[in-house]
Write a structure and sequence with these properties.
alpha+beta; 93 residues; 3-stranded antiparallel β-sheet; elongated
Length: 93
């Protein structure tokens, strides 16, 4: 059985009128779900990292929270840190 993958980062891009491209980098913010030392924080520290395999995903956080509340979902408000850069035609920022 293949489990639904969590999406903890994403990219989006828009071409600007002057030809440059604005790229947005979005990274899920799981720290907003628990304070340092909380039960969730201790569980994540014990697991160390999420493991994504072709046939299964083993998240660092409890599965329901990682796959639902902490995932980035298109078209919904999500807890994330987002930054943008503008790329010139020669690749300069």
């Amino acid at each position: 059985m293949i489990k639904k993958l969590q999406l903890d980062d994403a990219l989006s891009a828009t071409k600007l009128q002057d030809g440059r491209i604005k790229v947005w980098i979005h990274v899920a913010d799981p720290a907003s779900f628990g304070q340092p030392g909380s039960m969730i924080d201790r569980e994540a520290l014990q697991r160390g990292t999420s493991v994504v395999l072709p046939t299964a995903t083993y998240p660092m956080f409890p599965e329901k929270l990682a796959m639902e509340g902490m995932s980035l979902k298109q078209g919904t408000n999500c807890r994330a840190v987002s930054v943008s850069v503008v790329l010139h035609s020669d690749g300069r920022l």
